[in-house]
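Structure ticket #2291
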Amino acid sequence: MEKPRSLVIGVDEAGRGPLAGPVVSTAVIIKEKIDGVKDSKCLSAVRREALFNLIVNKAIAFGIGVASPKEIDNLNILKATLLSMKRAIESLNLNYFERYGEFIKEARVFVDGNKIIPEVKFHQKAVIGGDRKIYEISAASIVAKVTRDRMMKSFSKKYPVYAFERHKGYATPLHREMIKKYGISEIHRRSFLKKLNEENSLW
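Resolution: structure written out below.
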């Protein structure tokens, strides 16, 4: 396969808002157009899973970065999200090296949102609503969402009482009720729960 001369990297995250679990980011380089790729929030879980497999198989390279609940509590959600994005690009660069025998020398990075990623050497542009506007970001949004959902399903085996497989850590009535009944687990975001308690909006 001929290596592309002009690389475009799309970056997006999943899991900024939940009360539990990590924030997960993905960086993707993909040239081949796949029908149906759009913002992950506009797709069913079944469709996301199908597109996930197509994207990771057809991508020139991709990388996944994770920031843990503890890092979210220590840094704040914005800094933790940007850290996960930085890790995703580092992972992508390693994936590219494994495939092509060299690291990426230059690329244009499009990041969903209004912030660029600190300590990333490539030219960056933050795009508000990028997951709806830029194909590579849409692809990244799907991979990030499916990856995080799978992680939360895995956590549900360790913490079955919280039903993470159903709500993925978001603040649904069921999740709030389980927190009220059983307390918090190791993967709950204490900073989020503290803020909701202070605002009297957790229950």
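Closing remark: The chain is about 45% helix and 15% strand.
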